[in-house]
Amino acid sequence: MEDNKDTVNVETVEETKKEETTKKTYTKEDLDNSFNAGVKKASSEWQKDEKYKEFLEWKKTNQNDSEKIKELQAEVKKIKEEKSTLNKEYQQLVNTQKVKDSDAKPDFVRFITSEVTSKIDETNDFDTVLKKFKSENPQYFGEVVIKKVQTSPKLNNNNGASTTNSIMNDIIRNSVK
Questions:
Q1: Number of Cα atoms under 13 Å in the Cβ half of residue 152
Q2: Which residue pairs from 88-91 have beta carbons closer than 8 angstroms and sit at least 24 positions apart in sequence?
Q3: What CA dihedral angle connects 91, 92, 98 and 104, to 10 degrees?
Q4: Residue 153's pLDDT is what?
Q5: What φ, ψ does residue 129 adopt, rounded to 5°?
Q6: H or E element at residue 42
Q7: pLDDT tens profile 84-117
Q8: Under a CB-based contact definition with an 8 Å cutoff, are residues 154 and 167 in contact?
Q9: pTM for this model (two decimals)
Q10: Alpha-carbon gap, residue 18 to 36, rounded angstroms
């Protein structure tokens, strides 16, 4: 019996040694390589599929469409800004013409236009504010009158004899009247 036990023990030791030698330990690198190889194989098979190619084409066209939409939106924004600027300039010209047509003196057209424009609000439009401004400030409207005023004294007297003293006396008397 003792022989049996010895043989069993020898056999189990040998089997254990064989198992230990057949067990292989895998490193992280080995696992990564194995996984990457499987992924490559699967993706190469998938990339050959017709539906995958269709998907890539669809994705490209969608990206192109998205880029085109962004470009068009930027262009629309730019055009709106230009339109807004042009509308403001046009309105300014219309307002200036209205001021000119309201018999404003040419020297004050820009001033009147800016004053009236600054007083426009939700309840008053340009024409209403212009009429009010015209009634409150008549000095800026009407014909331009150039009045010549003589600032030098008259040196010739009716009797012909003019002295400085008489000229000065006449000036003083005329200013008192």
A1: 3
A2: none
A3: 170
A4: 59
A5: -65, -40
A6: helix 28-47
A7: 999 999 999 999 999 999 989 888 999 999 999 9
A8: yes
A9: 0.44
A10: 31
- How many whole angstroms separate alpha carbon 65 and alpha carbon 51? 21
Is residue 141 within 8 Å of 102, Cβ to Cβ? yes
pLDDT score of 155: 58
Query: In Å, what is the CA distance from 14 to each residue of 9, 19, 20, 117?
Result: 8, 9, 10, 107
pLDDT (0 to 100) of residue 31 = 79
| CB neighbourhood size of 129 (10 A) | 17
- Between 75-84, 85-94, 126-135, 150-159, the lowest mean confidence (pLDDT) is in 150-159
For 159, residues 6+ apart whose C-beta sits below 8 A from its C-beta are none
Nearest to 139 by CA among 171, 107, 176: 107
- The token duo for 115 is 């004053």
Q: What residues contact 155, with CB distance under 8 A and at least 6 apart?
A: 162, 167
d(CA 126, CA 116) in angstroms, rounded, equals 7
Confidence of residue 14 (pLDDT cuts 50, 70, 90): low
**Residue 154: partners with Cβ closer than 8 Å, 6 or more residues away:** 167, 170
